[in-house]
């Protein structure tokens, strides 16, 4: 291989194509043939683009927040085998920032009022949030520094280019005390947060302190970790700039870039292109061009972050000459739910390369959360090395065989059904799980699907029929849980529609029947199913948070961070259920309790003749949601029950 990554990717290609093996987040199938197959001739492969990029800044919080070195090492090895050669290394940056802030004269309480808790650092780093769920204990900084040393060492030893964080212009309020004449403006609130936990200060690009702080931080970071000369900074992530004047926007990007080159003359800026499609009413061509052209051409790489659904390169003349990476975002909030846009990713990168004067330099995987929908990521990784699209139905049949370690007609048939339905969303597709299962109940819930629900039910039947042959395969068991979970999610929508219809037509017996089945049988059965697999346990997520702590107090803080992120996402449900997960424990004690309250309120309304008021219900259910965050209940970290048996039981009861 021309690098460690190329050699590792070659090894995985041999394992995959000649030995029938498979590696993914949910498990590995590594039954090697004996003897190992010999190649008749040398096989050479070259990727069509320079980069295969991986990681979304949000995944640092939604997925990686509580990782130890063993988990990081596994991920980095998977990255190398997948051919990833460009990725962020963001751990430990708060320790360096703390050092810089102290050197500038800030006191500890001013720093503590700035950093968020560990589960929300991604948005602190982009200037969206401050203070929420913090502060960061001293032990956190030490552990993250230790992790970062190992992460960058491992990535570089495999020939990956690490992307380090740089200064985007956001500063703690304490800077204004130490430097009273500094020119900084307070940004507005982000998402549904007010200025209690948002409204961060942004330095004026012309202020001399912009260069002082930016260069000081980067020099300190490089001294600590070395550099591969690529840096990430996002000044306006989901934040409206103070002015739409192109000259101002160019000054901002130029200031960010100069603060990089002040520490490293070879600096290359890697920037997320999310802002352009997120706020199209602000980012017109003149504004986009101005921001991009504040940096010399070729010294910035833009991640076209949501290219499978909302490509930006098409309406910006290929980012007005700056190189870009065609990225598949795919997942929001680390939600569970079968989803894919396979046709878009099978053709999109090749269309982007053929675009007039294309500046595309690679492909990328940028999910907000990982450990879901393995197939889509395996497909995207393979496409990063290809010169033309794949024949998807035959590819997915081979995928099923490799994943389970044996050919099976029923399993392959199930995957072809899933491929054409749930994995083939077309048009502008946003994979944010809005199923009534994982949303706060109301009488106006979205039950629309982009696929034919019967295809998932049939895939469920086919997988169960393959369980006698494939039931011992760990990856098969994972997929059976996932497909059964998807079928149950569809069933929840059906019962919800029955509940709503019964309520609206004042049919109390039907309301009691549908509500009773949902609350007392379907949701508990789904919870049992999820509790039978280690990768679907709430206890695992909470325990990984507690394991990062060095004291009981830290453990409690980290657990509250972990619980809040997957539920309320903020003190008062500011981004409620954005990061919803379907986990054993969460389904029963959070979603289930909400549904129970909702059904009770509707029954009470019909009994008393008093109208149902959503506002009153929201206030009552918020106490339930908040109660879950603070309930301190211990959840199992080991699975219980037989996955195959529970899935079969659900099937016999509920298969439509």
Descriptive report:
- Helix 3 runs parallel beside helix 7 and helix 24 (about 585-610) packs antiparallel against helix 25 (about 615-630).
- The mean pLDDT is about 95.
- Strands 3-13-12-11-10-9-5-4 form an eight-stranded parallel beta sheet. The protein has a three-stranded antiparallel beta sheet with strand order 6-8-7.
- Among the domains are: about 85-295, Glycosidases (TIM Barrel); about 440-445 and about 475-655, Up-down Bundle (Four Helix Bundle (Hemerythrin (Met), subunit A)), CATH 1.20.120.
- It has helices spanning about 5-15, 60, 70-80, 95-105, 110, 120-125, 140-155, 175-180, 210-225, 245-260, 275-280, 285-295, 315-320, 340-355, 375-385, 390-405, 410-420, 455-465, 465-470, 475-505, 510-530, 540-545, 550-565, 585-610, 615-630, 645-655; strands at about 20-25, 25-30, 50-55, 85-90, 160-165, 170, 185, 200-205, 230, 270, 300-305, 325-330, 360-365.
- It is about 50% helix and about 10% strand.
- It catalyses: Hydrolysis of terminal non-reducing N-acetyl-D-glucosamine residues in N-acetyl-alpha-D-glucosaminides.
Count the DSSP helices: 26
Q: Oligomerization state of this entry?
A: single chain
Instruction: Estimate the strand proportion.
Output: 5-15%
Order of strands across the main sheet: 3-13-12-11-10-9-5-4
The named CATH superfamily of the domain at 86-296: Glycosidases
The shape is: globular
What is the class of the domain at 86-296 in the CATH system? Alpha Beta
- Poorly predicted ranges (pLDDT <50, ≥5 residues)? none
Level-2 CATH architecture of the domain at 86-296: Alpha-Beta Barrel
CATH topology of the domain at 86-296: TIM Barrel
Distance between the termini: 52 Å
Question: What is the radius of gyration?
Answer: 25 Å
Helix/sheet category: alpha/beta
Q: What kind of sheet is the major sheet?
A: 8 strands, parallel
Mean pLDDT: 97
Helix content: 40-55%
GO molecular function: alpha-N-acetylglucosaminidase activity
Enzyme class: hydrolase
Protein name: Alpha-N-acetylglucosaminidase
EC number: 3.2.1.50
């Amino acid at each position: 291989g021309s690098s460690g990554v190329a050699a590792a990717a070659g090894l995985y290609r041999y394992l995959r194509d000649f030995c029938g093996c498979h590696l993914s987040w949910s498990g590995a199938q590594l039954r090697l043939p004996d003897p190992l197959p010999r190649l008749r001739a040398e096989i050479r492969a070259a990727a069509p683009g320079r980069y295969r990029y991986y990681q979304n800044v949000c995944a640092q919080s939604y997925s990686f927040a509580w990782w130890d070195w063993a988990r990081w090492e596994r991920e980095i090895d998977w990255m190398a085998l997948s051919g990833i050669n460009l990725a962020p290394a963001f751990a430990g940056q708060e320790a360096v920032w703390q050092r810089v802030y102290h050197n500038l004269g800030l006191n500890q309480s001013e720093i503590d009022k700035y950093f968020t808790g560990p589960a929300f650092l991604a948005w602190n780093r982009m200037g969206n949030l401050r203070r929420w769920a913090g502060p960061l204990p001293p032990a956190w900084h030490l552990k993250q520094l230790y992790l970062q040393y190992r992460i960058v060492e491992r990535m570089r030893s495999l020939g990956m280019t690490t992307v380090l964080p740089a200064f985007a212009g956001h500063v703690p309020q304490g800077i204004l005390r130490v430097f009273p004449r500094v020119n900084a403006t307070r940004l507005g609130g982000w998402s549904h947060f007010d200025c209690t936990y948002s409204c961060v200060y942004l330095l004026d690009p012309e202020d001399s302190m912009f260069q002082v702080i930016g260069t000081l931080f980067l020099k300190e970071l490089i001294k600590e970790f070395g550099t591969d000369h690529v840096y990430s900074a996002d000044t306006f992530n989901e934040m409206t700039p103070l002015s739409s004047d192109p000259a101002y926007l160019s000054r901002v990007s130029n200031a960010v870039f100069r603060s990089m080159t002040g520490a490293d003359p070879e600096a290359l800026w890697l920037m997320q292109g999310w802002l352009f499609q997120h706020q199209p009413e602000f980012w017109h061509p003149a504004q986009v061009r101005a921001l991009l052209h504040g940096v010399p051409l070729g010294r910035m790489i833009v991640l076209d972050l949501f290219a499978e659904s909302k490509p930006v390169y098409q309406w910006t003349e290929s980012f007005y000459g700056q190189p870009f990476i065609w990225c598949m975002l795919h997942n929001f909030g680390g939600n569970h739910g079968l989803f894919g846009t396979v046709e878009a990713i099978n053709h999109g990168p090749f269309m982007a390369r053929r675009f007039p004067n294309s500046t595309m330099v690679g492909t990328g995987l940028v999910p907000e959360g990982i450990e879901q929908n393995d197939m889509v990521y395996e497909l995207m990784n393979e496409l990063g090395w290809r010169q033309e699209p794949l024949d998807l139905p035959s590819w997915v049949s081979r995928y099923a065989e490799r994943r389970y370690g044996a050919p099976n007609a029923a399993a392959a048939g199930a995957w072809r059904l899933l491929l054409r339905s749930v994995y083939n969303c077309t048009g502008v597709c946003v994979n944010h799980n809005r199923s009534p299962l994982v949303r706060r109940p109301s009488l106006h819930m979205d039950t629309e699907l982009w696929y034919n629900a019967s295809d998932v039910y049939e895939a469920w039947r086919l997988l169960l029929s393959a369980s006698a042959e494939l039931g011992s395969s760990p990856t098969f068991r994972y997929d059976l849980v996932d497909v059964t979970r998807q079928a149950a999610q569809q069933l929840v929508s059906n019962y919800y529609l029955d509940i709503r219809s019964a309520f609206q037509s004042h049919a109390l017996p039907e309301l009691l029947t549908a509500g009773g089945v949902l609350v007392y049988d379907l949701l508990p059965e789904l919870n049992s199913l999820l509790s039978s697999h280690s990768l679907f346990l709430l206890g695992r997520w909470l325990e990984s948070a507690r394991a990062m702590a060095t004291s009981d107090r830290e453990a409690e803080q980290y657990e509250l961070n972990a619980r809040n992120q997957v539920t309320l996402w903020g003190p008062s449900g500011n981004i409620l259920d954005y990061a919803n997960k379907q986990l054993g424990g969460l389904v029963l004690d959070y979603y289930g309790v909400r549904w129970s309250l909702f059904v009770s309120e509707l029954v009470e309304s019909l009994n008393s003749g008093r109208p149902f008021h959503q506002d009153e219900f929201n206030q009552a259910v918020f106490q339930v949601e908040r109660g879950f965050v603070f309930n301190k209940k211990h959840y199992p970290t080991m699975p219980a029950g037989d996955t195959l048996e529970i899935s079969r039981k659900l099937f016999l009861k509920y298969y439509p």
